[in-house]
Design a protein that fits this description.
Elements: H1 4-10, H2 12-23, E1 28-33, E2 39-44, E3 46-49, E4 52-57, H3 62-69, E5 72-76, E6 93-101, H4 106-115, E7 127-142, E8 145-151, E9 158-162
Antiparallel strand pairs: 1-2, 1-5, 3-4, 4-7, 5-6, 6-7, 7-8, 8-9
Length: 163
């Protein structure tokens, strides 16, 4: 299982830039898989806690049902527009993909809620998932081309350029 801490430990500057983009806006989007295999996009908030990336869901929400049935997910940061005359002013997009792990011990999830200043009793029946990361991607404009950095567990950070 690859935790967020592994990204930080192996590629600290990359992890810092990804986290900066993820933290820039409260709301992100998550893709899950419906029962028939088709994708579903939902809004979501995330939390970094104790070296892990966490996200939650209201009780029995469709995204929670999707993740309990098939834990694969892809999460995307909010996209913001660049200045029209300066494409490189775009801060970039961050994407995370992996498996959602709902802990068997609810105390772990409650600890994340308490760290956010929330009372776990107010979230009884809600779902909390820890991300088992399979890839983390940072995309941005540099000059006249896209730079795409890709991190996967056990591999070196790879960079792709697109013009």
């Amino acid at each position: 299982m690859a935790a967020w801490q592994e990204v930080v430990g192996t590629e600290p500057e990359f992890a810092r830039r990804v986290r900066e983009i993820l933290d820039a806006h409260k709301h992100k989007t998550i893709a899950t898989l419906r029962k028939d295999g088709s994708p579903r996009i939902s809004g979501i908030e995330i939390e970094f806690h104790d070296g892990e990336l966490w996200f939650g869901s209201m009780p029995e929400a469709l995204k929670a049902r999707d993740l309990r049935r098939d834990p694969r997910f892809a999460l995307h940061s909010a996209s913001v527009m660049a200045k029209e005359d300066d494409p490189s002013s775009w801060p970039g997009d961050a994407k995370v993909a992996g498996l959602a792990v709902e802990p068997a011990d609810r105390d772990e999830a409650d600890e994340v809620l308490r760290a956010r200043g929330l009372d776990p009793a107010d979230f009884a029946g809600s779902h909390m998932f820890r991300a088992d990361l399979r890839e983390v991607v940072l995309t941005r404009v540099v000059g006249d081309h896209l730079e795409i950095d890709l991190w996967r567990p056990g591999q070196k950070l790879r960079r792709f350029e697109r013009t």
